[in-house]
Amino acid sequence: MTKETSSITSGRAELLPALKRELKKNGCLTREIMDTVAGRSGLPLNEIYGVATFYAYLPLAPLGQYVIKVCRCLPCDMKDAQAVIGGIKQELGIAPGETTADGKFSLELVNCIGACDQAPAMLINAKLYGNLTPQRIVEILKSY
Amino acid sequence: MPEKRIVLGNCGATDPNDIETYLGKGGFKGFIKARDRLKPGDIVDQVKKSGLSGRGGAGFPCGLKWELARNAKAKMKYLICNADEGEVGTFKDRYILSHDPFGLIEGICIAGLAIGARQAYIYLRAEYHFLNDPLCRAIAQVKEKGFLKHLDIQVFEGAGSYVCGEESALMDSIEGKRGEARYRPPYPQARGLWGQPTIINNVETLMNIPHIIANGAAWFSAMGTAKSKGTKVFSVSGDVSKPGVYELEMGSSLKELVMDLAGAVDIKAVQVGGRHGNIIPGHMIDIVLSYETCLGPGAVVVFNSKRDIIDIVHNNMHFLNDESCGKCTPCREGTEVMLEILGRLRGVEGAAGDIDALEDLAQTMALASLCGLGQEAAVPVLDSLKYFRAEYVNRIEQSLFLRSYLGEELSKSKEGER
Questions:
Q1: Residues with Cβ < 8 Å from B318, sequence gap 6 or more?
Q2: Pick the CATH number of B231-303 from 3.30.460.10, 3.10.20.600, 3.40.50.300, 1.10.1040.10
Q3: Do A111 and B158 touch (CB under 8 A)?
Q4: Which end of chain A offers a freer environment for a tag, N or C, measured as fewer CB atoms within 10 Å?
């Protein structure tokens, strides 16, 4: 554990970057990881938990290797984001909030990702995909 | 009025990966002039005289903000570029950051000189993670050219929170806390990041700075209306044939933007300013775009006649309720109750007092919320009640009719379905 979390430096300013590093390494922020971050930073565990739960992109439970974030806000919703979500559900057999059995994909519905000019849009990890259709979804998912 | 590309002038004309192309188009002329020929006070003066106001939505006079920070006595001053573009329907900053990072960095360089900051942050939203590396590479190129001797620029990436676009929540986020709005005063110009004087400017605001310094305050203030100077970059989406980013002189009409440029034909309503922006009905399409009327961060979403107003307002409220930081009661509870009422109306389960309850709540939230999120959350609700009241009244009447006509049986079976 000490070796794995040696990148955590102390202090409040480093908290968010430290949590992100842990996330990159471990895929999620478990109780054990938060405990270690608390120990290193000198901050109480409840503070770490408070910060981790505030931000949408800091998951506490493990997610798939590829996290699909489909935008559910109005401009995407108006361009039939529902059909895209349906397409993903059909292709992967998972509903929003779920992960495929092989641990490859997770599906999430998120707030505006700033791609309303190419609605409906989604992110897969950090990659942006716009002008989606249920047909395109199948092709995109196959490329992973 | 046709498009007037000043802020977007270099987008597409330069290579965002190569500073030489930016220098070839006259890039960093404004910075060199500011550095070699102007005193910091003169830079602030130019920006003040130009009449430039904040482009992130609040419209605070930029020069005044800078002057307050410049005059504040402190060992350390900070400059933050707000690139946490979370407003629904806004994507102009993504476009700018992708196409002209050097223009933004030049603006930051000049702002640093003006207020005497040695550390700058670009707070980039997590959703734009794909822009982080290109932005860092652009900063490195600017540094290599020797334009960053006075200032260190760091990209600080958020972690997925809309309210962090609000300046006080943004500072808390950089400080490693939950991104919750702060009580003010003190204002950031006096005590901001780590308690030091801090300036927070939107991406688009800073993009204007090199042009103002290079061309002069008079050139800039000749554009626009009495209180809104320069141009504005708009993000247009929804029921239009050409969604995208458009730059117009302040004072252009909404009609020019959504019909002439973005190709909207059938317009029931347009929401200007994001999720808590004004809802403008189709018959008012000639309205002028300026701080005096409606503007916000320039998010423009068009709704055609097939769209249901209550659906739109409900989706808005769902977003605001989800993103409320929860620190102050009027916003946390107000958005919750509004969402509940709008959800019932949407599902034809309205009640007689619903409109009164929405209007009552709206007043409290506007008066008592800590930051813009709660203060303005009810703006679209009130606007829709003003212009599309009949739809609310109809929905309530339908609800009452359904309940009395179909009686208890229906409501029981409906409950069973849930």
A1: B339
A2: 3.10.20.600
A3: no
A4: N
